[in-house]
Amino acid sequence: MARAVQLSNQALSLQPNCVEALLILGSFAARLGRIAEAERLLRRAALADPFCYDAVRWLTTLLIGRNGGQEAIDFGQEAVRLKPDEAESHVILGLAAIGGGDSTLAISSFQRAVKLNPQMAGAYHNLGIAFEREASIDEAIEAFKRAIELSPNVAETHLHLGRSFLLKNQGDEALACAERVLEINPNLRNGKRLKADASFIAVLGDNGEEHIRRAIQSSPNSGFPYALLGSRLQEQGNFSEADESISRSIELEPNQGLAYYLFAHNRKIRDEDRPLLTTMERICEQEDILNLERRYIHFALGKAYDDLGSYDRAIHHLDLANGESDTNDHDEIAFDSARHASRVHRFIDLFSSEFLERFQGAGIGDDDPIFIFGMPRSGTTLLEQIISRHSKVGAAGEQSFWRDSGRRIVSLNKGLLDADELRKASHRYIELLHSIAPGMAHVTDKFPGNYIYLGMLHLAFPNAHFIHARRNPVDTCLSIYMRPFFTVQEMGRSRQRIVETYRLYLESMKHWRSILPSGRFLEVDYEQLVTNTEETTRRVINHCGLNWEDACLRPQEGNRRVLTFSKWQVRQPVYTTSVERWRNYEPWLGVFRQLMELP
Fold it and tell me: Would you give the DSSP letter of residue 470?
């Protein structure tokens, strides 16, 4: 290589615009990490011969590596213009588009690449990543699966596939991916994290008990399976047995964060628990504890001190749990607030009154679904518990179906809606609901983020019932801040990101109120629901077209599993202690104070 560099320098001294020499020197500088020098040489090569594909290709790759943004995309498009029938050129453009935040261009580029070369595993892998960024999870899963068929030993692809399964709450499938990742690379931290997350989700599924019992049998001295068993028992409302399992988990692994979090949320913390809180604080100070474990313990301490009325200590630990960044852990799925805002605004812009009128009649006439939506921690779980106590109503929990199916139905960039796909998706959705709650006339879906897709849902089910759960803005955002929404929810962890997400939610709801028919959805204030329970509940049941049943006033008696953070609360009679809870934290509200100024 030294000889090639020497000859290239000699060539440049004789011919300053010798493209071959500039390419050799530019690539050599890049390998040595001299990026500025490499970029200067490759720019000279591209300028000397604008038709030199290698110069454009290498320069684009270099710009991608330093987050070249639109310039990288421009050079990538030039590479495609020079070699439109080369799969590689479309991959390069796709990578530039991902770096520049244009997921739509990335998807079309990688799709073109795999059409030109169906054996290109890397292109399928990157296609999956682009679909992930557009929240098109089903398509991402298919792309990652194809990449694995072609190249089965790439841990990163199995990791992304597992994360995609987690976004659909498919714990068994995610767990299989995690195990494969660790087969390929037993020391990969991201693989261990995926296994922990997948295990947690897997135990929520139908095979959860089996997973836990098998884990306890194979590792009787491991505390984590006992923590998972405690979580499962909490979901079933069996808090006494859950306490025993959680205590056993802590006994076996005293530094395990999840067990402490479950302990704090198994009941109200009392003064006699203070010695354990001191132990938890001491564990958090240890340098060798994993960041995730430490954050779980801080969340647990935040809840514990809230129960004890020590609000200064509570907010201190909640701040430590959330940190100042939305990407504290490199192995977490980072929240991209700009991309989320763009998606919300594009739905608002597309679904105008004229657009809805044009596609009126595209859906189906079923009135089975009862959609409960709003911000997380706004009362959606309580509403589901109330409504599903009716003898004709089943509960499907939180189904991300419409978020995942949206890309196949709606092209936000082109401003198009596929009416046939909307109708097909509507039928698939009805089948899903009745597979979860067979024999029920109606089934609730309390996925909070459905507020983004109300226009699409209105077209899909013109006869369905919609209920908007509302709560005091500061109480809502503070409650979100107090819970570990690590990956799935469409919001960040910092206070500022939560406030931004709340404002987007308000913007969406203002739009839907202005264009959907009057009375299309019932708005239920959490404060009215818990202080004027019977009148509000009767209004909800009437909106759903159901006859009154007294059981709806006793949501705590429901025997279904509860898979949200409200496991303990929903087993209690309706209470009012969460109304204006923010007042306990008034000195420490920070940017949450902005929400007090909202109309």
Answer: E
Among residues 160, 183, 186, the alpha carbon closest in space to that of 173 is found at 160
User: Residues 6 or more apart from 497 whose CB is under 8 A from it?
Assistant: 326, 335, 337, 491
Q: Are 487 and 197 in contact (CB under 8 A)?
A: yes
- Cβ-based neighbour number of residue 542 at 10 Å: 12
**Helix/strand/coil for 83:** coil
- Beta-carbon contacts of residue 30 (< 8 Å; ≥ 6 apart): 38, 58, 62
Residues 251-283: b if buried by 16+ CB within 10 A, e if exposed: ebbebbbbbbbbbbbbeebeeebeebbeebeeb
Assigned CATH for 337-597: 3.40.50.300
d(CA 134, CA 412): 11
The tens digit of pLDDT for each residue in 162-178 reads 999 988 878 889 989 99
Q: Is the separation of the CB atoms in 266 and 568 below 8 Å?
A: yes
The reply to whether 2-194 and 207-322 are identical in fold is: yes
3-state helix, strand, coil in the chain (%, to 5): 65, 5, 30
CB-based contact 90:80 (threshold 8 Å)? yes
Instruction: Say yes or no: domain 207-322 is CATH 3.40.50.10610.
Output: no
Query: Which tens digits make up the pLDDT trace of 20-29?
Result: 777 777 676 7
Please list, in sequence order, all residues whose beta carbon lies within 8 angstroms of the beta carbon of residue 145, skipping any fewer than 6 positions away.
161
- The domains of the chain are located at 2-194, 207-322, 337-597
Q: Say how many Å lie between the first and final Cα of the chain, rounded.
A: 68
Average pLDDT over residues 259-286: 94
- Looking at this protein, which amino acid is placed at residue 27? S
User: What single-letter amino acid sits at 183?
Assistant: E
Which residues lie closer than 8 Å to 345 by C-beta, 6 or more apart? 507
93 pLDDT above the threshold of 80:
yes
Q: Map tokens 């995942």 to a residue.
A: 404
H helices of 100-238, in order, are 103-116, 121-133, 137-150, 155-167, 171-184, 189-202, 208-218, 224-235
With 0-12 / 13-18 / 19 or more C-beta atoms within 10 angstroms meaning exposed / middle / buried, residue 31 is exposed
DSSP state of 524: E
Contacts made by residues 220-225, CB under 8 angstroms, sequence distance 24+: 221/252, 222/252, 222/253, 223/248, 223/249, 223/250, 223/251, 223/252, 223/253, 223/256, 223/259, 224/196, 224/199, 224/249, 224/253, 224/256, 224/258, 224/259, 225/249
CA separation for the pair 164, 144 (Å, rounded): 9
The DSSP call for residue 554 is -
Confidence band for 325, pLDDT divided at 50, 70 and 90: very low
CB 282 within 8 A of CB 319: no
| Mean pLDDT of the region 448-463 | 95
Assign a CATH topology to domain 2-194. 1.25.40
Pairing relationship of beta strands 369-374 and 410-411 according to DSSP bridges: unpaired
